[in-house]
Amino acid sequence: MDGSGNLKQSGSDLDKELNGTEKSTQKGPLKIPEASFSLFISSLVTQALISLGEVTNPFSKTKEQNFDQAKFTIDTLQIIKDKTIGNLADDETKLLETALYDLRMGYIERSK
Question: Using CA atoms, how far apart are residues 16 and 104, in angstroms rounded to an integer?
Answer without folding.
Answer: 23
